[in-house]
Structure formats: structure tokens, C-alpha cells
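Private note to self, pasted from the team thread so I don't lose it. C-alpha cells:
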């Protein structure tokens, strides 16, 4: 009931169907725990109206829930007409109960014998979400973001080329920018960023990108873990990316 209430505060769901399903076992050791957000519509206006700070776990584990089979499914989750398909499945999962900075309970996947993540979205849908966020943040500084074009190409499953073109106006003055990067993922699941480029076009584009380049330069050739978990128990084992018009990410992780 608590989980269902929390999801419904942020997401609108179609009538019918259970968001949270529990079967077998006896609390806190469950046979299966399934959370299904499929068909839910994420409403950004609800988040904007929520003035509370972002969720931050306390780091203090107060209790634990075990599930022989755990699944978290968003197929799809809809945001501003964009559709994201996400599915997480885990066996012998451990979920920790903590509280956030406002005292609200949080349930986090902290351990699993084996788990998989599948993510899929079209390039057009990702462009739509990038544009939504860029417009909201740009408006705070008098910048109007008119368009974003995204390209993600994958010469191999662990090699990624990203190209982002942004068309903006600062007041009434146009400014176009292009960002490019190359990412290599090694066997230890570290991502190395290289070939960082930032170029500008139209009236203010060259000036703005000239200010941005020094900040980008410090990331050139740097490596960092591709993903980190709140719990040190979980480790990313493999990750593969597929680019093009349909972007797919497949990852496996566990103890």
C-alpha cells in the first residue's frame, strides 16, 4: 500500500491492474515482489509543484526485505509522449529500507545473486526528453532551446559515439552548438571519454562554445565507473549498448 501510494503521487496510471504484486513467502522473506509501472504517465508538472528536495537516502538501513524473484517493469513509462521501456529482474534479491531526508521510507535494491537491466527508447523519444529538460533549465537563464538533434552510434557494443546539436536563442540572438564525444567501456566496466569537441554556429554560438571548451577539456581521456550502486554489494558485470534509431542498453549485475 505504501509503495503504491508513493508511485501514484508521481505517476498517473490507467484503471485496473495492481502496481505492486507480492506472492508467496512470509514477510520479510517473500516469494516474489513485482512492481509494474507499465502504461504509467509521468507528469513533470507534479514534480515541478513538489518543492521538497530530491530523494537522498539516509545511509542507515532500518530493515530488510528479501525476495526470491524481484521484477521492476516499465513497459512503457510515458513522459510528455515519449516512451521509455525499462525492465529489471533479479533473483535472490535483498531490498533495504531506509528513510530519505524528509523522513519518508525508501526501498532500494541492495543485493542480488544475479540481475539484469534492459532499457529501450527511440532516438526521437530521447530527443524529446532532452528538449524538455533543456527548455526548463534554459528558461531560468533567458535561453530558449528550440531544437535538439541526437545521434548515438555504436561501432561495437562497448564503443559509443555521441553527437548532439542544439539550436537556441539568447534573448533574440541565435546560437547553435554541437557537442561530440567518444566513449570506450573496458572489461572492468569503466567508461573512458575522449575526442570531446564543442563547436558553435550562428551569432553567439562561437562565443558560447569558446567559454565551454575549457570546462570540457578536464574530462578528456578520463575514466570513471560506468555505474555505481548505493550498496557496495552489487557490481556491474557487463554492459552493452546498441545505437541508431532505437537505443538499447543491456546490463547484468549482482554479488
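Design output:
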Amino acid at each position: 500500500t505504501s509503495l503504491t501510494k508513493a508511485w501514484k503521487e508521481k505517476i498517473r496510471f490507467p484503471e485496473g491492474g495492481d502496481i505492486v504484486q507480492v506472492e508467496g513467502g512470509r514477510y520479510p522473506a517473500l516469494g516474489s515482489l513485482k512492481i509494474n509501472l507499465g502504461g504509467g504517465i509521468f507528469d513533470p508538472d507534479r514534480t515541478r509543484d513538489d518543492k521538497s528536495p530530491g530523494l537522498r537516502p539516509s545511509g542507515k538501513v532500518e530493515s530488510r526485505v528479501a525476495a526470491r524473484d524481484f521484477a521492476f517493469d516499465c513497459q512503457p513509462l510515458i513522459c510528455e509522449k515519449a516512451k521509455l521501456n525499462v525492465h529489471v529482474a533479479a533473483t535472490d534479491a535483498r531490498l533495504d529500507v531506509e528513510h530519505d531526508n524528509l523522513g519518508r521510507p525508501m526501498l532500494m535494491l541492495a543485493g542480488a545473486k544475479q540481475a539484469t537491466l534492459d532499457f529501450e527508447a527511440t532516438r526521437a523519444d530521447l530527443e524529446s526528453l532532452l528538449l524538455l529538460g533543456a527548455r526548463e533549465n534554459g528558461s531560468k537563464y533567458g535561453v530558449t532551446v528550440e531544437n535538439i538533434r541526437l545521434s548515438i552510434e555504436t561501432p561495437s557494443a562497448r564503443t559509443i559515439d555521441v553527437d548532439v546539436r542544439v539550436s537556441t536563442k539568447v534573448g533574440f540572438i541565435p546560437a547553435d552548438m554541437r557537442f561530440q564525444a567518444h566513449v570506450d567501456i573496458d572489461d572492468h566496466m569503466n567508461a573512458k571519454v575522449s575526442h570531446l569537441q564543442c563547436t558553435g554556429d550562428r551569432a553567439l554560438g562561437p562565443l558560447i562554445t569558446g567559454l565551454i571548451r575549457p570546462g570540457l577539456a578536464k574530462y578528456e581521456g578520463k575514466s570513471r565507473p560506468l555505474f555505481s550502486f548505493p550498496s557496495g554489494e552489487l557490481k556491474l558485470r557487463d554492459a552493452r549498448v546498441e545505437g541508431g534509431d532505437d537505443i538499447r542498453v543491456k546490463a547484468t549485475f549482482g554479488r
